[in-house]
Amino acid sequence: MKTVRVKKGYDLKVVGSPATELQEAERPGRLAVLPEHIPFVKPRLKIAKGDRVALGSPLFEDKRNPDIQFLAPGGGQVADIRFGPRRVIQEIIIELDETESSVEFERYSEADLDKMSREQLVQTLVRGGLWPLIRELPFRDYATSDFVPPALFIRLGSLEPFHPAPQVYLHGREELFRFGWSVLSKLADGRVHVCVHRDHTEWASSLDGLINLTYTGNYPAHDPGVLLYRMKSSSDENRAWFVDGQDVVLIARLLLEGTYPTERVVSLAGSGARDPGHRVTRMGAPLSLIAGEVKEHESFRYIQGGVLTGFGSEEYSHLGFAETALNLLPEGHRKGELLGLFDPGYRKPTYSRAFLSALNPEPLEMNCSMHGGERACIACGYCTLVCPVDILPQFTYKAVLAGEVEESLEHGLLDCAECALCSYVCPSKIELFETLKTAKADFYNERSRHADESD
Ligand code: SF4
Ligand code: SF4
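YS: structure for the whole thing
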C-alpha cells in the first residue's frame, strides 16, 4: 500500500466534534435543491412554481451541457423558487406528498455491470442525476464524461473540522461501497485510489483490501488535489477525478435499486450544536431539522461543509446537493471582538504566536469573526509555511491582483487545493484563498468560453 506523507498543512483543533452515534433525523416535510452552490453550473429551469414533480424528475439542466440534469430529491409540489440578486436561483423548494411518486430507472446487478460498456455506465449516471458528484481536478467542476481520467480518488474522511466519519456512513453499507467502487473502477480504467488517513484505518478492514492509498499529515492532507500534487509525475495527470466515499454508496444504490438515491449521513458539529453527532436524513433537508435544538446564549452561523471551506446559510435554508456537513459556529460579534487580533486570548484558535492560544493544546472554540480588518502584508511567511502544494500565496496573490495570469500560473495557481489555510493563518487577514480561488475559476471560465467559440 502506498503512503503519501504531507509535511505542510495545519492541525486545526476546534471544539464541537461530532459523536459517532448515528441518529435518524425527523422526516422532512419539504426538501430543496440549491443551484447557487453547485460550482460552475449555469441552471436552466425545467419546472415552474406549482408544478408537481416525482422523486428523480428533472428540476433544471446545466446550460453549458443540457445532458447534465439535477433531479428532484423528493416527490410533491414545487412550493417556491427563490431568486437572489441578478436572478440567481438560490433554492427550489418541494413540499413533499405523504406518499411520494418516483421515477423508475433501470436496475443492474453485479453480473450486468460486467457486461456494460463504459458509455452505458456514463449514461446511467447522467440520467440518474449523479454524474455531477464525480469531480475533476484541478478546477473541481463535474467530470468530463468522454475523458478517461489518469486517476480517480475516492476520499474516505476529511481532516477539516468537521465532516462525517467514514466508519459511520459506511457501517452496514460496505457491500454498496464495493459495488460503487466497481462502477468507478470501470469509468477510470482501474486507476482508482481509495484513500484514508494512516492513523484511521482500524475500521477499514471491513472494506476487504479496497483501501490502497494512505496519507499522513495535517489538514488538508486528505484532499485529492494535495495527494495528486505529491504523487504526479507530470502535468498530464492534472485532470484526475475524485468522489466522496458517501457518494460511492449513492452511485451503487442508483444502479442496484433503480431510484434516485437521496439518503445522506450528515455530521452536525460546532460549538453551537447542542447534540453534535451524525444524522441520517435526505439530500435537501431543512437545516433546522438537522440541527435540532441549538444552544440559546448566542447567535450562530450555519455553515454547510467544513469550517474553512464551507458556505454560510440561513437557518431556514436546506442542505446542498453534495453537502454532508453542518457546522454551527458562534457569530463572534461580542463587544471588542474586532480588536480580537490584539486580544491575548488563550481560547482563540490561531497559527500566529500573537495569541496565547498557540501554547494551549486543547481544542478551541472557532467563531466567524475576522478578528480585525485587512492590513498590509508583514512578510511573515506563514502562508508559505502551511501551503500543502508549495505555492507562495503572497506572491501569487500579488500576481493575480496585477492581472499577471501567466505569472500566477507559473507560481502554481492551478495546483491550489482551495483549502483556505493561507487566509486562516495570515495575521494581516489578507484574502489570499478567496482571491486565488476566484482567479482559478475565472481562468477556467475564460478558457471554456474560448473553447466554445472555436467549436
Ligand atoms: S494557496 Fe492557500 S488555499 Fe491554495 S493550497 Fe495553498 S494554502 Fe491552500
Ligand atoms: S501570511 Fe499574510 S502577512 Fe504573512 S506573508 Fe503571507 S500574506 Fe503576508
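YS: worth flagging: The chain has a mean pLDDT of 91.
IM: good catch. Also DSSP finds twelve helices and 20 strands in the chain.
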